[in-house]
Write a structure and sequence with these properties.
Strand order of the largest sheet: 1-5-6-7-8-9
Strand content: 25-35%
CATH topology: Aminopeptidase
Largest sheet: 6 strands, mixed
Order of helices and strands: EEHHEEEEEHEE
CATH architecture: 3-Layer(aba) Sandwich
Shape: globular
Number of strands: 9
Length: about 150
């Protein structure tokens, strides 16, 4: 796996470099592991809309349908390549909904790195939720509406 090492650092950013569009398209739209969560993806698209990559202020972001307030976090390698992506929105006063979550399929060859990327993304979403007044739950749309409580 060129450029991906278990000991490598994982950065988090809300905007991806524009030259990473192809890598992001592969991660979000052509991920070979999509079959594992196909029903959840379909449910998310039917409920919230289709994700779309767009350029803003020289970087890439993701929007979903015509929903306002969609946020995207990218887990990136030390070289700026996307390792994972999380797309979420405040879907109700007390809840963040994670609409799409993806990890570079090459990381499934090293389960430790795959887990590190997922945990890093979810930790950042949880931190954002805790900083947002009134948000008490994070819902993973791919997981049949299971919500994770922030307190207790």
């Amino acid at each position: 796996m060129a450029g991906i090492a278990l000991s490598g650092s994982i950065g988090i950013t809300s905007k991806l470099a524009a030259d990473q569009r192809t890598a992001l398209e592969q991660l979000l739209f052509f991920n070979v592991n999509q079959h594992r969560v196909r029903v959840g993806i379909q449910q998310s698209i039917e409920t919230y809309g289709v994700p779309e990559i767009y350029e803003h202020d020289g970087g890439l972001r993701v929007r979903v349908g015509d929903i306002a307030g969609v946020q995207t976090l990218f887990a990136i390698s030390e070289f700026g390549r996307p390792l994972g992506v999380a797309v979420f929105v405040r879907s109700a006063h007390e809840r963040f909904a994670v609409l799409h979550l993806g990890v570079d399929p090459r990381l499934s060859l090293t389960p430790e790195m795959n887990t590190r990327v997922l945990l890093k993304l979810m930790h950042e979403i949880r931190s954002a939720a805790r900083r947002t007044r009134g948000v008490e739950r994070i819902e993973l749309v791919y997981k049949d509406s299971h919500a994770v409580r922030l307190h207790g």
